[in-house]
Amino acid sequence: MNRLATILLLVLTAFAGCIDGRQKGEFSVGGTESRALASCTGSLTTFTGQSLSRDHTPSGADRPLLHVLVVCPGFEANGSQSDIDHGAYESVYKQSWFADLTTSEVTIRLDRRNDLVEFNDEEFRRSEGNE
Hints:
The protein is built from 1 helix and 8 strands, in the order H-E-E-E-E-E-E-E-E. It is mostly beta strands.
């Protein structure tokens, strides 16, 4: 095989490892369950998932990974929406509440490679919480 073909094969193999569709890192996020608060706008969201082995294979049963409580005092919403996007090493969850002329939104980024959570520009280790 000539040198250019060998380099191209190596690059494509490395690139394929980034886009194989599997979640990678310390854990995978299998789902989210979000419950609206009864007395004000907000939610309690639970992220569930599994630990991952070195080859990114899930091990064990789904378990709670993170609980997030969001309270929007004084915001009278008439609808909401949420979305989650899983990249190779990162999951990004967005939740929005809508009022007549305004929107309130939170974004939670889970860095699965380093086991970090980013919420409102603050970062903390998921395993330690935000105390």
